[in-house]
Each structure stands twice: as structure tokens, then as C-alpha cells.
Amino acid sequence: MKKIILILSLIVAALPLYADDLYLHDNSIIKGEVTEFTTETIKYKTADGQTAETAKDLVEKIIYSRGRQVEFTDRIFLKDNSVISGKVTGTSGDYTEYNPAGPLLIDRVLTAEIIRIVYSNGRVEDFALKNGIHTIYLNDGRTLKGKDITINEKFIEFTNEAGLKESYGTAVIDKIVYSNGEVRTFQPAEPDKKTEKKQAEKAITPPSGMFMEFEWGWNGYTGLGARFDYMIFNDFSLNAGVGAGFWGYRISGALRYYLDYPYGTAFSIGAAYNSGGELESDYDTTDSSGNVRTEKVTFDLKPVLCINATILYSFMVNRKDKIYIEAGYSYAIQDKKYSYKTDNNASLTEESEDIMDIMAPGGIILTVGYAFMF
Known about the structure:
The protein is built from four helices and 30 strands. The chain has 374 residues and is mainly beta. It has an eight-stranded antiparallel beta barrel with strand order 19-20-21-22-23-26-27-30. Strands 4-3-2-1-5-6 form a six-stranded antiparallel beta sheet, with no helix packed on it. Strands 10-9-8-7-11-12 form a six-stranded antiparallel beta sheet. Strand 21 and strand 22 form a beta hairpin. It starts with a helix and ends with a strand.
């Protein structure tokens, strides 16, 4: 009897303490006790009590010691009513690639044959909606056809039948009827009297997200020049400009944030590069004896990079364009911005140096401009 008890004890001791099985997409199996899930990893204890983890995307399923099973596979529903289980890894040409639940390490299926994909995290990608042609009904009675509709807070974007991108303010849209029959209506809250005129103007001309700006200013992004401003998402835009000023040519770039795109108040941060160059002009100089006279001075204007921070306010004109005023401060990176020479090695007077300091890049920014929407 003692021998039987001893044998049974040895058998029990030899059994693994942890019996959860993690099945990976590469067909390997990890044995351990699952202890924690995160958004990206699964943590477990190994047979020797050590804590380890594996990426959640690598796991096909977990079979717990008591028989409960949890699957982490994506499900691909095809037009022939079949369902593929695996982990979707991406697209390649006309195909969608995945790691299948089975002996193969990788496989693919024609994207055109897919109805929808239900991902392991619950997200559903509906290909019938994605590839279908949808109908957009406007408040004025017009209808538009398009696909790849993206709905933002204040406007929608879609690809029209000619393959071109279009955008319309949500205020002018009555409803969208999707290719599968689903209907999305747009019923904005009743505007108060203070904002009624503003919303009506937006309904007439929804923002396109592109403006060509012509401006003149002091220490601004272009001096006398032009900028192209393009909305990148929601109330943010990027702009690039080129112009000319006292310190040569100027090129610039900036990021803007609008409180209510594309009009009203906006904040901007960016940089402007001034090319510099040679300048010859009459300035007051003083010689070693203290005599002051006016003479030709040749300046070597150094290239100067400035970091700009501004606030901008714009007014709508012509129902879509805008006039704007921009103010702020420009910080010049370089300390020594110019050198000079005179015929008799005289020095600039303090007044002349003050004039050059004022004309040099950096300092208060003040700009006015007109922007065309297109």
C-alpha cells in the first residue's frame, strides 16, 4: 500500500502545475498559468514559477485547464458564405493577407471577395459599405453619388464618381443613404440667434480646406509674399510661404490651430528663413576722431532663421474668402546678423546701428492679408 501511495505521489508531482495552453499562429503551444491580459500582451507563469509574456497578436486561442476556450482570431466573411479564421496582417495589391488558424503560416484571399471582417477586438470592417456607391442628399434638393465617405464633426469628405475628393459642411446635408440601405441623417440642433447667421454662411459655402493667402507685414512669415494653407484634420492646418523683405528672400512653414475652422481666431507656430544678401546704402558713420558723416556702407546680411509664434483673426468675405490680421513675436536664432565695411574703416553711429537692428529679422510681428478659398 505504501508503495502505491508513493508511486501516485510521484506521478502527481511529475504533472505540470499549470495546464493553460496558449496556441500561437505559428502552430507552437505555450504551457503556463495565464495571469493577466493587457491591450497588447498576455502574461503567464511558467512551470518553474517565472513570469513571462507574449504578444497578444501572436496568440490564436487559449484553452484553460478547466476546458474554457478563448479565441483571438479575426473572422473573414466571404461572398460564398464561407468564414475564414485567422489574424489579418494587411493588404498586398488585390489581396488581404492573414495568418490562418491551421497549419499554414500565411495565406491570402481576394479583397473583392470579402463581405466583412470581424476583428478579435470587436471592430467590424464592412467591405460592402467601403466599396459601395452611396447617395448624399443635400438640403437644397440636390443628390450626390460617392464612396469612401468620412464624416467629421463639421463636414464630410468623399470620393465622387469621377474619382475626385469632395467635401461639404454637415449643415447642408439632409441624409446619407448607404449602398446597403443604411440611412444616416443630419439634424443639427436649432441654432440660437447669435450663431444663426454664421451657420447659414457656412451652409452656403462649406470649407474646402485649401486657401491661397497673399500678405504684407513686418517680421511675418513671408514679408511681402504668398502662403498656401491646407487643412490636415479637423481644426488644424499646415501652411508654407515664400516672399521677400529687407533681409532678402523669405521661406516659411507653420502649423495653425483654429478655434472654429476656417474663420475667426487661430494660433500658429512655425519658422521663417531669411536668405540675407549684400546691401549698399547711405548711413551715418563716425571715425576715430569722433567725426560723423554720411557715406556709402556695404552690408553683408547673414542668413537668419526665426521661430515665430502668432495669433490670427480672420473675417469671412464673399461668402468663402477671408481677410486676416496676424500678430505675434519672431525670435531670431542668430545673434550676429550682419557685418559691414566703409571706405575709411569708420564705424556706424549708434543711431545707424539701431536702424539696422530694427530692420533685421526678429521682433514684433504684424501682418495683414487676403485669402482665396479654392
